[in-house]
Amino acid sequence: MTQNRSLAGIPANSSAVERMATLVVWLGAALVTAVFLWIIGDILRHGMSGISWAFLSSAPQRSGRAGGILPVLVSTFWILIVALAVAVPVGTLTAVWLADFARRGGRLAMVVKACLDVLAGVPSIVFGLFGNAVFCRYLGLGYSLLAGGLTLACMVLPILIRALEAEFRAVPDDYRFAATALGMSRTRTVTAILLPAALPGLAVGLILGVGRVLAETAALLFTSGYVDRMPRSLMDSGRSLSIHIYDLSMNVPGGEANAYATAVVLVGLLTLINGAVLWLSDHVTRRFHGAI
Amino acid sequence: MIHEGSTKMDTDPVLDVRGLTVKYGDIVALRDVSLAVPRGAVTAIIGPSGCGKSSFLSVLNRLTDMIPGCEVTGSVRLDGEPIHAEAQNLIALRRRVGMIFQRPNPFPTSIRCNIDVPLRESGVRRRSERNDIIRDVLCDVGLWDEVKDRLETSAQRLSGGQQQRLCIARALALRPDVLLFDEPCSALDPISSGVVEDLIQKLRNRQTIVIVTHNLSQARRLADYVAMFWNQYGAGRLIEYGAADRIFEQPVNHVTASYVDGTVG
């Protein structure tokens, strides 16, 4: 045994093992990157040619085979706004409650957390059924952008809350003690110190939420419907980008080209929103934390 | 326990602690401590780790309320008023009894905001008035010249010693009657530690100060009165209390004598 070991006590064959391990780790990373690039490349290759100002600014014709996607963009926008307008405040409040107000290890907090964990794992189609039963029928909203947005809000809340709660918990207790010792009320401590300190986490939670909302198809089929007309109000039915892609590629023979073009728009939109949220969070964080 | 009679100690205590016991669940951190903190003086709490010094300090501004399972019995009076009374306004109490922690804990905001936010919260509405106070307290802690041109930059970019002085300025801004220091220099390098100690020297005539310290020579330099805590039968006790000179020169308790000699502890 001893001959096989170098002076430092490391096995002599370690360099070979090291090299293998390095290779495997690099392969893993390369594989993930390759799959990602393949998907993006495929979408861009097939879809870029369909992108034009006319495509973005006109209504679909012949079930989407021709024309553009303006009403779909508008519907997507409204669904996103409704979902975030509900999920972000409710989610932030719940996360603050879980992290700072609920008794640590208390029964109620445990129940709420268990519910959130179960809800986070529920398939979106089940949320769709729930939204259809509650928002569309019971509350009488019908197939509408409002019902779709509210359903998606329910769907993203569990993920959003757990992400935010983790961020609030990561804020050092030092700040809480300091604020308390300075005679600051609990509410003020949360709004003036903890919320701003957790802002980068809020941004990440928001991006997760936006991603889920923009990607969702199943839950919306039951709730916001798939009419491709321009919505006149939140009570109108409307079609989201993801449903448009689904419909064009599955139900409309000859719709593939526009499905790809729509996919380019969806990916572009996601990238744009993520970038904007990160920039905004960085900007606000800088202002709050003081210039560096 | 030896409780030395001294006119200043008996006639006009700011804080009067009687029969104080602090428990964390089944663990008794502090048992039956009685101690009067004299007004306008520096009282140092000394003793080895785990004898309840910090617990004693955080009873005085009721920060112990934030610790789940912490139970406090006995009485603490601030200017004659019991601080554990039902009607006690905790926010008002903490503005009167300020606290500086072991590790500097400035908020992750700008230097100005660190002082401005608690000040506004305490009811100083006018911005110009707050700016005056911010300048005054930063001057008091000797930080003004160092930071006056970068009040909007992050407090966390300051050095450890500067951060601790900012925390002291932040506490001073609320014009507290008593300042509690919980080993304020133990996380600092020797030079910063000296600067903070000089600052406490400067405050001694304006402010009642209670300071927990592990550093006996610091206690010697700063304190008017010294309270010696010791762990007896698994609980922190006050074993000797009196004027600093007497405790260091002629301690009555043999444990205190060995501790200040450096032969035990």
Written account of the structure:
- The complex is a heterodimer of chains A (292) and B (265).
- Chain A folds into 2 domains: 2-50; 53-291, MetI-like fold (Orthogonal Bundle).
- Chain A has 292 residues and is an all-alpha fold.
- In chain A, helix 3 (70-101) runs parallel beside helix 6 (145-170) and helix 3 (70-101) crosses helix 9 (199-215).
- Chain A has helices at residues 14-47, 53-57, 70-101, 107-120, 124-138, 145-170, 173-181, 186-197, 199-215, 218-221, 241-250, 256-289; strands spanning 60-61, 66-67.
- Chain B is an alpha/beta fold and 265 residues long.
- Chain B has helices at residues 7-11, 53-60, 90-96, 111-121, 127-140, 144-147, 160-173, 190-203, 216-222, 244-249, 254-261; strands at residues 2-3, 13-24, 27-38, 42-46, 70-78, 81-82, 97-100, 178-182, 208-212, 225-232, 235-243.
- In chain B, strand 2 and strand 3 form a beta hairpin.
- Chain B is globular.
- Chain B starts with a strand and ends with a helix.
- The A-B interface holds A 103-104, 172, 174-185, 188, 192-193, 196-197, 288-292 and B 61, 63, 66, 68, 91-95, 98-99, 101, 103, 105-111, 113, 117-118, 121-122, 152-157, 167, 170-171, 174.
Structure summary:
Chain A is mostly helical and 292 residues long. Chain A has helices at residues 14-47, 53-57, 70-101, 107-120, 124-138, 145-170, 173-181, 186-197, 199-215, 218-221, 241-250, 256-289; strands at 60-61, 66-67. Chain B has 11 helices and 11 strands.
Task: Please write out the topology.
The complex is a heterodimer of chains A (292) and B (265).
Chain A: H1 14-47, H2 53-57, E1 60-61, E2 66-67, H3 70-101, H4 107-120, H5 124-138, H6 145-170, H7 173-181, H8 186-197, H9 199-215, H10 218-221, H11 241-250, H12 256-289
Antiparallel strand pairs in A: 1-2
Helix pairs in contact in A: 1-12, 3-6, 3-9, 4-6, 5-6, 6-9, 7-8, 9-12, 11-12
Chain B: E1 2-3, H1 7-11, E2 13-24, E3 27-38, E4 42-46, H2 53-60, E5 70-78, E6 81-82, H3 90-96, E7 97-100, H4 111-121, H5 127-140, H6 144-147, H7 160-173, E8 178-182, H8 190-203, E9 208-212, H9 216-222, E10 225-232, E11 235-243, H10 244-249, H11 254-261
Parallel strand pairs in B: 1-11, 4-9, 4-10, 7-8, 8-9
Antiparallel strand pairs in B: 2-3, 2-5, 5-6, 10-11
Helix pairs in contact in B: 4-7, 5-7, 7-8
